[in-house]
Design goal:
By secondary structure, the chain is mostly beta strands. The chain contains 2 helices and 21 strands. It has one domain: Porin (Beta Barrel). The chain is globular and about 55 Å long.
């Protein structure tokens, strides 16, 4: 006997206990880039598609596979030194990343960035495979997101990277959850940690401790409000295994935000990075490569169709970035986005322009 169910995300087709669903998107994007080192503008096209497959073959097991395909065409492929090598990187224990260069100016990149099996039993959940372990709390910088840190300016990767890991969760009532996770990378380096999440007096709180690349770590995080403003923050401390004398090994981020009528959002975030706080997180240096930083975000929902915003970043050593954007809904499954990112340092600058059309689907 076959039945069809409609969910908020996808159509699910069930035959007895077998359920499956497919959803995804296709995006086409133009990218233009110009730096102060050259008066010429690089023009690049990107065709970006994603497919998510969910399968529930037999309770309590479920499976998920996400395939991400990108085709770069144009100057970036041809003119940026080492571009193909840069894109041909998979830090997971299993290499699920494939590239194929066609001619001098076309590169195809395929990633399987989710490949996992879930087991659910009452209050227990166990997940094995490539997955997203999201322990971050803050909006822009996430020191506690120790398994798969992301770059805020990589706006076209909303799903964010995954890790090859085993994760076990136990929920014993209310909003209290205990999680334990361990992951291995392509160099057989281990990361493992335990997190406890709970709620007290309107605040979501978390504490964690773990081990990363021969270093011990601990962290805290919170999310709540002060009056009508949201208040979030998180911090971690890293200690080498040999317990060498104390040095500055703390990285912390704090943010406040507020929504105003009609349709305004304002957020302010700050980052503090200690001199040795990156120990054990070498692969994540892109996200914490400055000692101090602040970011202001302002967004306006103009009407149900139009929205606009700007993010302004300022970091140590006079680094600055400005990211304005405007988007328009073209229907239930279509969106047009125009955004720019300008990066400015003492002796270098680069301006980038992006125009993206997205179509989302589910079957």
């Amino acid at each position: 006997m076959m039945a069809v169910f409609l969910t908020s995300h996808s159509w699910l087709i069930a035959q007895d206990t077998l359920c499956w669903g497919v959803q995804g998107f296709v995006k086409g994007m133009y990218m233009g880039a110009q730096s102060n080192e050259s008066s010429a503008t690089m023009h690049t096209g990107l065709l970006h598609g994603r497919l998510r497959f969910d399968l529930d073959p037999l309770d309590p097991f479920s499976f998920r596979v996400d395939v991400r395909n990108r085709v770069y065409m144009g100057d970036m492929v041809e003119q940026v030194p080492g571009f193909s090598e840069l894109m041909d990187v998979d830090r997971g224990m299993v290499d699920l990343h494939f590239t194929n260069r066609q001619g001098s100016d076309m590169l195809w990149v395929m990633d399987i960035d989710r490949l996992l099996v879930d087991y659910h039993a009452k209050r227990w959940t166990a997940t094995l495979g490539r997955q997203r372990i999201n322990w971050g709390v803050n909006t822009v910088w996430n020191p506690n997101d120790i398994f798969n840190t992301y770059d805020f300016f990589d706006f076209d990767y909303e799903e964010r990277p995954g890790s090859d890991a085993l994760r076990v969760q136990y929920q014993w009532g209310g909003m209290s959850v205990m999680e334990a996770a361990a992951s291995m990378d392509s160099e057989s380096k281990l990361r493992s940690a335990i997190l406890y999440r709970f709620n007290r007096q309107g605040y979501d709180l978390q504490v964690l401790t773990g081990y990363s690349y021969d270093r011990w770590l601990c962290g805290i995080g919170w999310a709540g409000s002060i009056g009508e403003s949201g208040f979030k923050g998180e911090a971690r401390y890293v200690q080498p295994r040999d317990f060498t004398p104390f040095e500055n090994r703390i990285v912390a981020s704090v943010g406040v935000d507020r929504t105003f009528d009609p349709g305004w959002y304002v957020g302010l975030n700050g980052l503090y990075t200690g001199a040795d706080s990156r120990l054990g997180f070498e692969n994540d240096a892109v996200s914490f490569s400055y000692d101090r930083a602040v970011m202001l975000q302002v967004n306006k929902q103009i009407n149900p169709i139009w929205s606009a915003g700007v993010s302004v970043f300022y970091g140590s050593e006079d680094r600055m970035a400005v990211m304005p954007s405007v988007s328009r809904s073209l229907g239930d499954n279509w969106e047009l986005l125009l955004t720019g990112i300008g990066f400015y340092e003492k002796n270098a600058s680069q301006n980038n322009l992006f125009l993206r059309l997205r179509w989302s689907f589910s079957t």
